[in-house]
């Protein structure tokens, strides 16, 4: 087992020129406050400096936010495929690269890399996430990379790991772009094997380090999971009280495939038919959902994970405002692109304004809420989305003294419109200061980056990896 960082002890006092609190349910910026942490809890928010503290973060111009939550992210496959899918790379006949390239590539990584090499890629991904300001991440990944849990445990990130379940051991698109399910043999079906693997992973990691490590149920998508698997996964999740995350209506092709397989149902109707569309479901993308689907999804009180940039690269994407205006709880994640959550909420706001033709939609407070209070509500941890006495001490602190942020008239608008990951000053999870002054505190950043890059290079040595991206 990896080393778990020491529990936070004593008192940490953090000075914020600006502190985001909530008043009457809305985010409000208070000036010149001290946030006092005792152990893993926020003890006080006060205008007066505490008489004593074991650790003091006192620098001017800092904006203290509740820790940012990135609830849809793939840091392993993103690191492996980095820059290869840009400018249409790997895209055959304008098809998505998910089934033709990304899933097979990650499978190659699982087949040829050692556990230590996979751990090195996991560490690189998590370092990137922490330096990007995330305190909580929901991360779906192939179930052959349990090292992701070890890396998260060691590095202090709050981690909702979501090992995939598929109805096919090796999901790959056929010539028509369709993923076929495997047929059960004497030893059972791939669905059953994946659910068994998920249960083993849940038993080993769920709840470690005082609940910081969580295991989320993660049937991969509507077109890779058959009805029996979806029903079984949902039933098991309900039994354990864990949430379900999946990919929904990622493409027009997926809508066609589900319609053909299941009596004309849309992907959202398919999930609803099986009982999955509800408050415990977090569904990524939903790009090809119809307006009728969105009405149904709003009624079922589920959460949409809007990740606009990964799709924007392909020339089409979904606007945050399209879902939010229907009354659906909508949060923002980075999926397999860049993992700069501040950059992502900026893009989500911009794309919403372009698509709606209205500058007032997706306002700065709305976008900040989407990655703090709304996201915390989506995982039923409201204490993670708010700075108040008694809440868990997860904080993201942004340095607003940079020249592109000064003079500073409106901190929330500056954060969404102008700031980016390079402005992250400190990241605190469970009271542990994991990033301070922009640097990771628990390890050697250069060594983590070099080891992760070397492991990824081994995948790119495979002829099939290079062939997938040959033009
Ligand atoms: Zn995804």
UniProtKB/TrEMBL annotation:
Which Gene3D superfamilies does the record match to this protein?
Answer: Metal-dependent hydrolases, Urease, subunit C, domain 1
Tell me any Pfam family this protein matches.
Answer: Amidohydro_1
**Which controlled-vocabulary keywords does the entry list?**
Hydrolase
- Signal peptide extent: none
- Transmembrane parts of this sequence: none
The Amidohydrolase-related domain is annotated at: 63-433
Record keyword ATP-binding present: no
Where on the tree of life does the source sit, at the highest rank?
Bacteria
GO MF annotation terms: hydrolase activity, acting on carbon-nitrogen (but not peptide) bonds
Note the SUPFAM superfamilies from the entry.
Answer: Composite domain of metallo-dependent hydrolases, Metallo-dependent hydrolases
The reply on keyword Hydrolase is yes
Q: Which family does it belong to?
A: Belongs to the metallo-dependent hydrolases superfamily. ATZ/TRZ family.
Q: Report the protein name in the record.
A: Cytosine/adenosine deaminase-related metal-dependent hydrolase
